[in-house]
Design goal:
Elements (H helix, E strand, L loop, with lengths): L5 H6 L5 H7 L5 H9 L8 H8 L9 H8 L14 E6 L5 H7 L3 E7 L3 H10 L8 E3 L3 H4 L8 H11 L5 E4 L8 H9 L14 H12 L3 E7 L9 H12 L2 E3 L12 E3 L9 E9 L40 H16 L8 E2 L13 H4 L4 E2 L12 H4 L8 H7 L16 H9 L4 H27 L1
Parallel strand pairs: 1-2, 1-4, 2-3, 4-5, 9-10
Antiparallel strand pairs: 5-8, 6-8, 7-8
Helix pairs in contact: 3-4, 6-18, 9-11
C-alpha cells in the first residue's frame, strides 16, 4: 500500500483514521465504505471501518483513498485572512442564514445547533475549521441559563470566554412556541407556549444574554410571522423592548400593520409562500443604522422567479408516489372538510404553480401541503384503475432543497447525508436562502462601516 506523502504525514494522522472519524460526524460507516469502494473496489465495507474506529483493526488508507475521502469535506469558502467580517450562527439548523452571510464574505466563527441530524447536514456543507470555529450543541451550556444558581456576572464571563468576538449575530431561535400550529397543539395538550414554554420559548433570552455580553455591531433574528401576534402582541413587545434596552435599534420597529417590511415572504424569490419575521438590529452607539429599512429588500427581488416545474425532476423513484391508502385518506379528509365549509385539505400543485403552500417540518408524514399532480382526474371514480396510476407524489428531498434555495437544478452542491424523514424535517424548519442572501447584501455596507468604527476605537 502506498504511504501518505510526508507533507500529509506531518500534519495529519498517517493512517487516515482522524479523517475517517471526522467524516463519521457526518456519514455512517456503510456510506463511507461504499464511497471508498468507488476508488478501491471491494476493499472496504461497513464492518472494516467499524473495527478500525474501535481499534480492532488497523487497515490504513493509501494516498488515492485519502484524497478521495477528503472530497467529502466542504471547502472553506471564507478564511480568516480574507474575511470582511465575522459572525456567529445560533440555532443554526442546516445553515440557511449562514449561507447568505458567507456569500457576503463573512466568516462563521461559532455555531450552535442541538439536533444531531441537522448537525450532520450542517457539517456536510459548511467548513468548521477547529482553528477558528467552535461548534456547540446546547446554547444553555454557554449562557448557563439552565442553572438558577449562576449569577448574571458569571454567565456573562462564561459567554465571553466561550464565544469568539464577532460583528454579526445570527439566530433563527425556535419558532414552535410561537407558530400557529405549535400554539394550537400545545393548547390542545394543556401545555405552555410562548415564553412560558421552558424548553424553547425562553431561548430568546439566551440570545439576549449573548448580545449583552458580546455587543456585536449587528444581529439578524428570524421567526414565524405569528410571533408578532402571539399572546395578543405581548410576546413581541417584550422582545422589542429587550433589544432596545440592550442598546440596539431594530429596523422598521414601529411598523406593525399588514405592510410590515419585517415580514418577508419567500414567494418573491422562489415558488413557495413562506412568510417569516426578520429583525435586523444595529448597535445605536455606532450610528450606522440611519436610513436603513427592510423595505429596500424589494430592490433585491429578481425580475423573474422560477415556476415550480423548473425545480422538479422528471426521474424519481416510485416511493415518492402516495400509496393508494394514503391518497384515499387525504382525498376523503379534504372532501369532509370542504363539505363542512373549512379550508383544510391537501395542496395539489403542478409545473406551472407560482407559489406552493409553506413546506413544513411535518412534510414527511403525508406531504399534504405540497402534492405534485401526476394527471389525476377528479371527474373519474376514485377507484378507477387507470386513474389510480396517476396518484400524486411528494417532492423529493433534492426538490425541497431547490424550493428552499439551497441548490439549483444542475448545481446540486448541497449534500443531504440523512434519511428522507430527517431531510424533510430540516428543510421544513429552515429558511428560504435567497431571502437571507438579500438581507445580508442589504446589510453589508452598514456592517463594514461598523467594523471600521470598531477597529478605530480599538486602535485608539
Amino acid at each position: 500500500m502506498e504511504q501518505l506523502p510526508l507533507d500529509i504525514q506531518s500534519s495529519e494522522d498517517r493512517s487516515g483514521k482522524e479523517l475517517i472519524e471526522k467524516l463519521l460526524e457526518i456519514y455512517d460507516q456503510k456510506f463511507l465504505g461504499e464511497y471508498l469502494n468507488e476508488f478501491s473496489s471491494g476493499h472496504w465495507c461497513r464492518e472494516t471501518i467499524n473495527r478500525w474506529v474501535k481499534g480492532k483493526a488497523n487497515p490504513g488508507l493509501n494516498v488515492g483513498e485519502y484524497e478521495h475521502l477528503k472530497k467529502l469535506l466542504p471547502e472553506e469558502k471564507v478564511k480568516p485572512e480574507t474575511a470582511d467580517f465575522r459572525f456567529i450562527d445560533l440555532f443554526a439548523g442546516i445553515g440557511g442564514i449562514r449561507k447568505g452571510f458567507e456569500e457576503q464574505n463573512g466568516l462563521c466563527v461559532f455555531t450552535s445547533e442541538w439536533n444531531k441530524y441537522a448537525v450532520r447536514t450542517y457539517k456536510a456543507n459548511y467548513a468548521c475549521n477547529e482553528k477558528y470555529h467552535t461548534f456547540n450543541q446546547d446554547i444553555r451550556d454557554i449562557t448557563l441559563s439552565n442553572d438558577d444558581d449562576i449569577s448574571e456576572e458569571e454567565a456573562y464571563k462564561n459567554i465571553d470566554r466561550m464565544i469568539p468576538d464577532h460583528d454579526v449575530l445570527l439566530a433563527g431561535f425556535p419558532c414552535q412556541p410561537f407558530s400557529i400550529a405549535g400554539v394550537s397543539k400545545k393548547n390542545a395538550m394543556g401545555r405552555a407556549h410562548g415564553f412560558e414554554c421552558k424548553t424553547q420559548g425562553t431561548l430568546f433570552f439566551d440570545v439576549a444574554r449573548i448580545i449583552s455580553a458580546k455587543q456585536p455591531a449587528a444581529f439578524v433574528l428570524e421567526n414565524v410571522k405569528n410571533l408578532k401576534s402571539h399572546d395578543k402582541g405581548k410576546t413581541f413587545r417584550v422582545i422589542m423592548e429587550t433589544l432596545d434596552e440592550l442598546g440596539y435599534w431594530v429596523s422598521d420597529n414601529e411598523e406593525m400593520g399588514s405592510d410590515d417590511p419585517k415580514v418577508i415572504d419567500g414567494k418573491h424569490w422562489l415558488p413557495q409562500h413562506r412568510e417569516r419575521i426578520v429583525l435586523v438590529g444595529f448597535r445605536k452607539d455606532l450610528g450606522v443604522h440611519n436610513g436603513f429599512t427592510l423595505r429596500d429588500i424589494r430592490k433585491m427581488i429578481p425580475e423573474r422567479k422560477p415556476k415550480l416545474g423548473e425545480l422538479l425532476d422528471t426521474d424519481y423513484t416510485p416511493n415518492y408516489i402516495l400509496t393508494p391508502k394514503l391518497w384515499k385518506y387525504l382525498y376523503d379528509y379534504a372532501a369532509k372538510h370542504k363539505a363542512a365549509g373549512n379550508g383544510f385539505g391537501f395542496g395539489l400543485v403542478n409545473e406551472n404553480t407560482t407559489a406552493t403552500r409553506t413546506l413544513s417540518a411535518r412534510y414527511y408524514k403525508d406531504g399534504s401541503e405540497i402534492l405534485l399532480d401526476r394527471g389525476w382526474d377528479f371527474d373519474k371514480d376514485f377507484e378507477d384503475e387507470a386513474n389510480m396510476a396517476n396518484r400524486p407524489r411528494r417532492l423529493t428531498p433534492v426538490e425541497c432543497s431547490r424550493l428552499m434555495g439551497f441548490s439549483e437544478p444542475g448545481e446540486e452542491s448541497f449534500r443531504i447525508p440523512v434519511s428522507d424523514t430527517q431531510a424533510y424535517k430540516q428543510f421544513g424548519n429552515s429558511v428560504v436562502v435567497p431571502v437571507f442572501r438579500s438581507v445580508a447584501e442589504l446589510m453589508k455596507d452598514r456592517i463594514m462601516q461598523a467594523v471600521q468604527i470598531s477597529n478605530s476605537k480599538n486602535v485608539a
